[in-house]
Write a structure and sequence with these properties.
With 524 residues, this protein is α/β, with parallel strands linked by helices. The chain contains 17 helices and twelve strands. The longest helix is centred in the middle third of the chain and has 24 residues. The chain is globular.
Length: 524
Amino acid sequence: MAVAPLPRPHGGVRGADLSRSSVLFGGPFGRIFRALPPADYGADEAANLAALKKLAAAMLAAPDPIRNGPDAEESGIPAAFTYFGQFVDHDLTFDPASSLQKQNDPDALVDYRTPRFDLDNVYGRGPDDQPYLYSDGLHFNLGRALTGAAHNPHAHDLPRSSPAPTAAGAHPARRAIIGDPRNDENVIVSQLQGLFLRFHNHLADKHGDFAAAQRAVRWHYQWVVLNDFLPTIVADTVLQEVLPHVAAGSDLVTDPPKLRFYKPRNEAFMPLEFSAAAYRFGHSMVRPEYQLNPTLKHPHVIFAGDSTHPNLKGFRQLPADWAIDWRFFIDLEQLDWGTEDPEVHDPRNNNRVQLAYKIDTSLVNPLGHLPSTIGADPDALALRNLERGWRMRLPSGQAVARAMGEVPLLDLAINIGKFTGSDPLTPITEIDPVFADNCPLWTYVLAEAVKKPVPIMTSQGTKTCEARLLGPVGGRIVAETMVGLMLADSSSYVAQHPRWTPDAELMENGRFGLRELIKAALAT
């Protein structure tokens, strides 16, 4: 019996079938810098793509050799933030529209996306319209129990469909029954989705009412975005200009946000400068492999793998012993640094928080050949990003910097490679002269990342990692877009109750962030 293939959530490059002469970007998408000319890198499509292919190839990098302790590529930012960023992206770009609606409205003039921090990637259309997501109209269904992490004793896979018929020897498809199927595209974001289901169930027990629990989950999530995620990824000087209350330790009423560039005229929109360039910074933070828990003695690689080093591809039922020990992904508690396990074969991951890679102009080489279930045509992530930006008619990074009143980076300062201090870097104009004062916006955002020393704990004691955070162009686009979307959302805590603070029982030392949200979910 023939079996339908698993959906490819990203497919080809968005915008590949659009005419680059079109100026129609209405509906949910828009531009912050509408008048800036698009960047081109050749006289015709073939020349443009040839230049972008050279740049994409130069941005692919092999990871450093394994060593005991933090390696030079690590940033000091816990790896959980990489996948929280992916989770946020899926929330902002959730698409519940029917295929018929899309056919009738190919230019997306009707806003069938919801550019809001409302967790519709978790809640779907709610218990009335999608009752199969819920056990009793109040709590989410969870999948089968997972083991392997003693510090995550209530771990569950996502609820999944019954296995479809397969050819002899084939692995049955067990598709996740969740609000947004993209949150099952890798093992880490899949289990992060599961944590949000559990966090909702935790607050549902407290409130006893679906609407009240949903609002509480959304507001705690929005708080994490503004008060933890943005301060973790955006340079301090940039964030202080947009969210002065974070540095002042005050609130949104005493020190309200200040937006200079993201100013929707009628309704909130998703800026192409954000979605097709600046927010793709997280691709450079991906590690080539991750240790899931102490029971599994080998790290898991992102995509390609073998029987010894399995991969983290999603869209499948998880093996029973693949529960994530979230202590390996964020600083939930101090691990026992003095008792390293010799059976764990990657010292970088041995009894310490795994750190995201630096925000720089390199991507780890597993992202150079995405599996067909994730994306194709092309399958290199860097080329997909560069081609998307070109087809979406994005301006150059230097043009955006000038429009912001910033002094653009010199061509010699736009270096391609790993920002480790020892690896060789290549000025972008040596890759192709067409990039002189004409850097693709996504690459520019990565190149302008700002240094910040971050202390981390290791088995040898406290050490300092050099993090790189989003700078004046990328940080401003990301921060203003996220803050602007919350200000425009009449149901957000920013709009309804700007003095609101998280539940006191969920805070630790007066703080609530991603760490505390995960701890609350783990208790359920």
